[in-house]
Write a structure and sequence with these properties.
single chain; alpha+beta; five-stranded antiparallel β-sheet
Length: 168
């Protein structure tokens, strides 16, 4: 008789216990799905920020090369005065012809930038502007800000680097 009694005490679950178990599993799966989608979104944003930082650093290196190739005087004269807040487009080596590759990559004739660097799901633009400039003898310098922008869905994001060039 004791064997029959044990089976009756554990025999089956009530409908309420099943509904509670389904609700708990549903809550856990919802939280897991949300955290995974949040992680994927953050991973993509971090990747785009890393690409933009690489473009910005590459732009600073292009400006350093320009300074070395042109010399201080020609390099300094290529920049507009710092009282304009105009941004100028930086072209990449991929956008240049062979003749232009060995000449200037600074194009200060237009304030609009139609140059984009295509990546999957994002187009990056590289812009620069003169932040500050000094012609004081013995303390000549140009402070330049490079800004890389990209569109992430409906939102425009950017990263920037500032570099000071001096007459040494």
């Amino acid at each position: 008789m004791s064997i029959v009694y044990k089976f009756k005490s554990i025999a089956g679950s009530t409908i309420i216990e099943i509904l509670v178990a389904i609700a708990v599993v549903g809550v856990v799966l919802t939280a897991l799905t949300y955290s995974l989608s949040f992680s994927v979104k953050n991973s993509a944003q971090a990747e785009y920020r890393q690409i933009a930082s690489r473009y910005a650093q590459n732009s600073i290196e292009m400006l350093r090369a320009e300074r070395a190739d042109r010399g201080w005087s020609d390099f300094k004269d290529a920049f507009p005065p710092d009282n304009t807040n105009d941004y100028y487009c930086l072209r990449s080596a991929d956008d240049l012809t062979d003749h232009e590759l060995y000449g200037s990559t600074l194009d200060l004739t237009a304030t609009t930038c139609n140059q984009t660097h295509n990546q999957p799901k994002a187009d990056f633009q590289r812009l620069f502007r003169t932040v500050e400039q000094s012609d004081e003898p013995g303390n000549e310098f140009i402070a330049v800000e490079v800004v890389v922008t990209w569109r992430d869905g409906a939102e425009v994001r950017s990263t920037s680097i500032e570099q000071v060039f001096r007459d040494i």
